[in-house]
Design brief:
Helix content: over 70%
Radius of gyration: 26 Å
Number of strands: 0
Number of helices: 3
Order of helices and strands: HHH
Structural class: mainly alpha
Length: 62
């Protein structure tokens, strides 16, 4: 009964289907941005790891 009240005035139009399309170029741009972000985060993580190993090596050599 309560679902009937909630969706009583709900209207589905055909315009929703045309607006839900996604352009391939938009997806490719988003993919390129995500790859760039992932590459940059991998570089930062690698630099942090190398720095930690270098500091540990310096401490152990003293």
């Amino acid at each position: 009964m309560s679902s009937e009240v909630k969706f009583k005035n709900h209207v589905v139009t055909e315009d929703n289907s045309s607006k839900s399309r996604v352009k391939m170029t938009d997806l490719l741009v988003r993919l390129a941005k995500e790859k760039k972000h992932e590459r940059n985060s991998n570089i930062v993580l690698s630099i942090a790891t190398v720095s930690a190993v270098a500091v540990l090596g310096i401490i152990l050599s003293i």
